[in-house]
Design goal:
By secondary structure, this protein is α+β, with helices and mostly antiparallel strands. The protein contains 15 helices and 16 strands.
């Protein structure tokens, strides 16, 4: 029987893994420059966390979660997104007593049982961040600027930034009434999911991807036209802040997010590139989520993006994220005594963070030299019986073919001096 990976998962091999590392390193550096510390939460949590936090009417909770009973008959779920777990950690670990705002970023695997498409998997890697404790719209601007800077560091400068406000609890009450009044005459033609949304969460009617429901949504009343004074002022601050940083944006009055916890500012970075044709990054404010999950009322905001989708975007732009490291030195050996000397030299150089390679497969000299060529080694040294007896060997610069005679016991010193 030939075993295969489950549908929607994949092996990440060495060269591609380097791309993931490059993205994560750039993201980590940008986050740290903005004052964010890294957090890691469990890959699985109690199912109730996602039902309450993400929302039972969302597609994520109702259709896409990997949920199972453990041996104690407890319902657990592989995390489908990062925010709920970070909020839970913020509450559980008493972070409300820390200096606010608390700024956290994360990188990790997420799981959703959804249709597999190019760049969309059932096991995927997500990077994101959350900030707790600031109700000021200035932090909205700061976070959007962080995302914008991250993309610039990757070499992407032409994504479209879409922003909108979906209000607070105060203005949402009135807006939901208007939305339900509008949809009332269209209920019979809505999809089965939207019929449930109409009763439980009218705002999500606007986020349906079914063609007929999208047609109905086009003429629905807009949240932007129904914001309360506070939400209007906050959104104005966001626009002014982005203008001040010279970050281009478009107001998309139909933009809502697919998860229940969002309030006020929501945003997306969109690509028209053939590589992905869609949202690369999405986020927004969630001022009621901490309280909903058992903490005290605390404003929050965050975003997330899928690394696989981002890699597609980079590849379509021919932005190379590989940073393959080649050996500085290859020591070819003839005989056991030569190997013993070579392994000791290699060990000492590796202590100095120098990449050294030696033969561990019992190859002949010709095969070793062929291997060194394929590995793009900078220097090659050959050690055999004659070299051991005379304490003399030749070091070859592979790029030019130039050879120089040196002492065997001086190899480490010479390589350390010339490693750059």
């Amino acid at each position: 029987m030939k075993l295969a990976v489950p549908k929607g998962t994949k092996d990440v091999l060495s060269i591609e893994m380097e791309k993931y590392r490059q993205i994560e390193n750039i993201f980590s550096n940008v986050c740290k420059n903005y004052g964010y510390g890294e957090i890691t939460t469990p890959v699985f949590e109690f199912t109730e966390l996602f039902k309450r936090g993400v929302g039972e009417t969302t597609d994520v909770v109702s259709k896409e979660m990997y949920t199972f009973l453990d041996k104690g008959n407890r319902s657990l779920t592989l995390r489908p997104e990062g925010t709920a777990g970070v909020v839970r950690s913020y509450i559980n670990n008493g972070m409300t007593s820390l200096v606010q705002p608390v700024k956290l970023y994360y990188m990790g695997k997420m799981y959703r049982y959804e249709n597999v498409q190019k760049g969309r998997y059932r096991e995927f890697t997500q990077i994101g961040l959350e900030a707790f404790g600031s109700s000021k719209a200035s932090i909205d601007v700061e976070i959007i600027s962080l995302v914008n800077m991250f993309f610039e560091k990757l070499g992407i400068s032409d994504l479209q930034l879409m922003i909108n406000s979906i209000g607070c609890k105060t203005c949402r009450l009135e807006y939901n009434k208007k939305l339900k009044n509008y949809y009332e005459e269209y209920i019979s033609g809505l999809c089965s999911d939207c019929k449930i949304r109409y009763t439980k969460n009218p705002l999500r009617l606007l986020d349906c991807k079914v063609e007929n429901c999208q047609k109905v949504a086009k003429n629905a009343p807009l949240f932007m036209d129904n914001l309360c004074g506070e939400c209007l002022n906050d959104f104005s601050t966001v626009k002014q802040g982005l203008d001040n940083l010279e970050i281009d944006f478009t107001i998309n009055k139909t933009l809502v997010r697919g998860l229940d916890y969002y309030t006020k500012t929501v945003f997306e970075f969109i690509s028209d590139n053939v590589g992905t044709q869609g949202t690369i990054c999405a986020g927004g404010r969630y001022d009621d989520l901490v309280e909903l999950l058992g903490g005290k009322q605390t404003p929050g905001i965050g975003f997330a993006m899928g690394v696989e989708r981002l890699l597609m975007e980079l590849e379509s732009r021919e932005i190379n994220m590989t940073n393959e490291v080649y050996p500085v030195l290859y020591i070819a050996t003839l005989g056991e005594k030569a190997y013993s000397i070579a392994s000791k030299i290699a060990y000492e150089l590796r202590k100095q963070n120098i990449y050294v390679d030696i033969d561990v497969s019992g190859r002949g000299l010709k095969a070793q030299m062929k291997y060194a060529n394929k590995k793009n080694v900078k220097y090659v040294v050959v050690i055999g019986e004659n070299e051991i007896a005379s304490n003399k060997c030749k070091i070859k610069i592979m790029e030019t073919g130039v050879e120089k005679q040196i002492n065997v016991d001086a190899i480490s010193e010479i390589i350390i001096e010339n490693k750059a």
